Fold this protein.
Amino acid sequence: MLTGIMVLWGAVINAISAYLAFSRLKTMKTPTDLVNVRVTIVLPVTGNAVDMTEIVRRLERQTLRPAHLIVAVESEADPAFAIAKEALAKTGIAHDIVVAGLAERQAQKCLNLQAAIRQGHGDDGYLVFMDADIRPSIHWLLQLILPLSGGNFDLVNGRRWLMPSKSTFGSHVVAMIDRSIMLLPRMDFVSTCTIWGGSIALSFENARALDLHGCLDNTISDDLAIARQAKLKQMRIVAPGSLLVASPIDLTIAQAWRFARRQYQICRLHRPMLWYIAMSIVIGRLAAWAAAFHLLALGYGPLPILALAGTGLLKQVLVARVAGRCNMADATSGYVLQLMLGLLQPVADMFHLSVLLSVSRVKRLRWGHVTYRMNGPDEVFVVGRASY
């Protein structure tokens, strides 16, 4: 009886994931309205890997052209400074490069954002934060601004869509996990509210109401700090169904594990409830598979296994359709690998569980070339810097 319930629970988890992907398909549409407003984009960058030429090219092609681009680096010694300076010399978009200095009690990215906010011209219009590793579509900026210009919302957020540039197992397993998370509905409680820092839009008026500069002090996470402050201020947040933003990745399995661990280190520190929810889902589904094989061994046949594998496969088919609707479909080899991961869900779940267990306690975090010690959500210290 208990084993049957466990199998049913695993199938229900997969069915819910499939339903969420199907629901997302129904809400996706390309914007047709046009707005003429002033938008300032803030872009924190660091290191050699940033492709500023590609970023600038994509910003120039936006259907809503940005009025001002502010690139923030930690120092002129940062290779990103020279890269940005060269790329921006060729664009007609008004721009500035600001040097933030070295962070001591917050994430370097948060200090970079603060320096950029001080540089912004906040008399009117809108402020947009973007990450350097995204590849926005031509309607990206318009999709961010339209819900704000209508006056129905106070903050608009995109959702990251990891796109493996090569069909490596590491890239695809972390993409499978992350995509499922990105398709979840918003959970608007203080303990669970999240936004993604790669695409955030709000008016300058709301930025001042949030004390956007102040809430980035003493924190490792820009997006979760902003999300919490917005929730406490009772701001209306929306993540439009079609606003999925490509974020290319090329990771070995070890790199994928470290990437996922960093995400969950921040989650464990700032949103422990989400860590508990993730643990319950992953353990529940693994228990369902174990129960299915136990029933097979008892002679009840393969139906429980087929139910779990079938709902996992259906989920991946619908997730692929969501990606295709946004012109972000995987290559054929990647699509096949994603389907295989759906059929063999325990493989991804074991990877996921190992990451979750590794962050049961969070003290240190390596992000880029900076190492942080975290004594609590509002107690962050820089304890080391490596070369760029």
Summary: The radius of gyration is 21 Å. The CA atoms of residues 268 and 275 lie 6 Å apart. The chain has 13 helices and twelve strands. Residues 272-297 form the longest helix (26 residues).
